[in-house]
Automatic annotation (TrEMBL):
InterPro entries: Blh_diox (IPR022270). It is found in: Cell membrane. It is an enzyme of class 1 (oxidoreductase). Catalyzes the cleavage of beta-carotene at its central double bond (15,15') to yield two molecules of all-trans-retinal. GO terms for biological process: carotene catabolic process. It catalyses: all-trans-beta-carotene + O2 = 2 all-trans-retinal. GO terms for molecular function: beta-carotene 15,15'-dioxygenase activity; carotenoid dioxygenase activity; iron ion binding; monooxygenase activity. The keyword Transcription regulation does not apply. Its cofactor is Fe(2+). The chain crosses the membrane at residues 21-42, 48-69, 81-99, 137-157, 177-200, 212-236, 265-286, 298-315. GO terms for cellular component: plasma membrane. This is Probable beta-carotene 15,15'-dioxygenase. It is a multi-pass membrane protein.
Length: 334
């Protein structure tokens, strides 16, 4: 007879989220480790922008099927789906216009929104991976968001200053004096306290990941650290969630097959991804280097982030628990 722990482990293995969660965890940890390894062995030097640009490009597809997520949950038809996609585009366009009209305040709001989005994404992924209800854990989310975004931002303030200056006309792109020291003095001890709290709750994987993220943002060049986090950690884990949301993927995922769900995702994400990459290609050709690209691209990224973050927030709120079909007797339970 199997122990209760073995039974719980086997039960979780039959959920659609189990296989993509394991794959996403492995990819994210391996990518973060690779960037750190390059830094400690050879150093990124002047090539630190490569992981940043690569990460931003790799992260584009993860939000490309946002318009389908409510349809997965609510079984919407084509008319409602088209209306939602139109509303998504309207919100993005409004956010872009606000960014262009008031770039300074908009940039500050964008940074805070992104930190919240990244942090809550981490806590939601951890809850789902452990087969727990998704909790809106504000404090852990704030700590993790600060760790993965604010720490690289203040550590790389000098490199980011020309980009910020180009985005916010009339500014020198530099943080006010003392802001960087305050961020590090608050976020790093809070991250250490969060890791200890997770260890005390025997949540070993989550505690180890807090440590891995801390090593990444403190060891790798700030630009490289954020690039690998966005493209190979945050985006990959969100994609794992989307794969598990698609009802068509459930039979494959509970059977341990990841190939077909990935192909379905690739097909669904192809057109929006190509459209965004085409725009980025045009921006790149006119930007005159990676800093110019970032300065031109930042308002576009901000515009797309607003509706994306809202969709993910709805996803967390609409499904507080891991209510997913499970494999029983070789069939998917309905």
């Amino acid at each position: 007879m199997r122990s209760p722990l073995e039974l719980r482990t086997a039960d979780r293995a039959g959920t659609p989220f189990a296989v993509p969660a394991r794959a996403a965890t492995a990819v994210s940890l391996a990518a973060a480790g690779a960037v750190v390894l390059v830094e400690v062995t050879a150093g990124w030097g002047d090539l630190a922008w490569l992981p940043l640009v690569a990460g931003l490009l790799l992260g584009v597809p993860h939000g490309a099927v946002d318009h389908l997520v409510p349809a997965y949950r609510l079984r919407w038809g084509p008319a409602r789906l088209a209306a939602f996609a139109l509303g998504y585009a309207v919100v993005a366009a409004a956010a872009w216009l606000v960014f262009r009209a008031a770039p300074g305040p908009a940039l500050a709001v964008f940074v805070l929104l992104s930190a919240w989005h990244f942090g809550t994404g981490e806590t939601a992924f951890a809850d789902l991976r452990a087969d727990r209800p998704v909790r809106r854990a504000a404090l852990p989310g704030a700590v993790l968001g600060g760790l993965v975004l604010l720490v690289p931002l203040v550590r790389g303030a000098e490199q980011a200053a020309p980009v910020v200056a180009a985005v916010v006309p009339g500014s020198d792109g530099r943080l006010p004096p003392g802001v960087g020291a305050v961020v590090l003095a608050v976020v790093l001890p809070a991250a250490a306290a969060l890791a200890v709290a997770l260890l005390l709750e025997a949540r070993w994987a989550e505690a180890a990941e807090v440590g891995a993220l801390a090593v990444l943002v403190l060891t790798a060049p700030p630009l490289a650290a954020f690039g690998v986090y966005f493209g190979c950690w945050h985006s990959v884990r969100h994609t794992a969630r989307v794969l598990a949301e698609d009802p068509a993927n459930a039979p494959d995922l509970v059977a341990g097959r990841l190939g077909a769900p990935l192909r379905r995702f690739a097909v669904a994400a192809a057109l929006p991804t190509v459209a965004v990459l085409a725009v980025l290609g045009l921006l790149w050709s006119a930007a005159g280097g990676w800093r110019g690209l970032l300065a031109t691209d930042l308002p576009l990224l901000a515009a797309l982030t607003v509706p994306h973050a809202l969709v993910v927030a709805w996803l967390d709120r609409a499904a507080p628990g891991p209510a997913r079909p499970r494999a029983r007797g070789g069939h998917v339970a309905r």
